[in-house]
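WARN  no MSA supplied for this record, continuing single-sequence
INFO  ligand: magnesium ion
INFO  echoing inputs
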Amino acid sequence: LAVTAAGIHNPLVVSLGLSALAGLFTFQAIPVVSGVFVAHGRAGKDLLKVGTPVIPESMGAIAGVIYIIAMFLFIPVPFVKWFRESSFALGDGDLVFPHNKFAQVLGGLLALMSMLFLGFADDVLDIRWRVKIWLPLIASMPLLMVYCVTYGGTDVVVPIPLRPLFDGKLVHLGIFYYAFMAALAIFSTNAINILAGVNGVEAGQSLVIALSIAANDVLQLFRNPSRAEAHLTSLYFVLPFIGVTIGFLAHNWYPARAFPGDTYCYFAGMIFAVVGILGNFSKTVLLFMLPQIFNFVYSCPQLFHIVDCPRHRMPSLDPKTGLLNPTSFLIPASPSLPARLIIRIFSATGLLRITKRDPKTRAPLAANNLTLMNLLLVRIGPMREQNLALAVVVVQAACSALAFVVRYGLVRWVYDV
Ligand code: UD1
Ligand code: MG
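INFO  complex generated
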């Protein structure tokens, strides 16, 4: 096992230790700072509890800051070998300090810190959707720049079935590859933020995605030693995130005593974009985000205002039964043609249930909001909040299992591996 060579193992052990500490600190810090956050208005109502108690919001800021501290302490660790040799000169050879790798770590951290700041700004200022959707684009700029100067490759391998359409095995995407990476950052951040609103669901899904990325990294370390550096860098970024997410989730799981805020959602999404871009495995990261892709595509008619989109699309609590029910959007008396088409197609495929009809004309007046969680409630029936959060986590884990089958099994049909 080439990767077990001396020098590679140690930073990983340090990273694991720091990640555990970061998790522990997050777990301890949240109850301590909660009161301060509430006193300064950083709080939200828990809408799915009787009496809507006030819960400290934007706790992603605490998880994020502790993550950044752990990463800052970790910065020198993978480079200790070169500190000992004091070989910082530019040039070729093993002894020369790996400026490229160093720039990647710093670029990744810069992107994460920008996202943390912009996420917190959004929580405080409640930035409009049409503006805030672009914040991750700004935060991903340092990352794209570092990718350009350190790696720069924009060739992608054409899948076997599509090869007759192209000249060779590789296609040069150029600027479009950068557009794809920027789109990945915009998608992953916003996608976590819209699969939200039930205790534990934002951190729960992020934990499963992060664990899947880490498992894939470890697998790749053994299967593909030539790419070991990229997957080690990914592990260095993702392990402390797993730590702080577990520390936060302990307070965020039902009944929540802390809310993530957009700060956490954006931060989590940016972690996935950073490792996908720096490690050059963004397609695999997207495979681990199948529920988010589904939830986003399914949400599109509401996000693009083809049908009505209420401020909150989360399920609602029936105080009599203690169960969550799907919520609905209103259908106008004469919907537009695209709206009518979507309602018809979605109803026919079981993706939409009309929840209210005109008693006389039978015309549809309301239908369930187009989110994965509402769909689960429509298909399975009303359930308790903690069970719905668990259902999302189970769906996420099942999709990860499927992603591993596709990545390591079915891939033979599409790429020559
Ligand atoms: C996104 C969703 C919105 C969803 C909201 C829930 C879209 C387009 N937007 O909006 O439909 O309702 O997230 O986070 O899909 N909250 C709870 N329990 C929780 C978590 C959150 O009641 O477990 C409530 C709290 O009142 C909290 C608020 O949701 O203050 C946070 O909402 P916010 O993050 O501001 O909503 P958006 O991200 O704008
Ligand atoms: Mg949010």
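Residues 193, 196, 262, 265 surround magnesium ion (ligand 2) (CB under 6 Å).
INFO  checksum written, moving to next record
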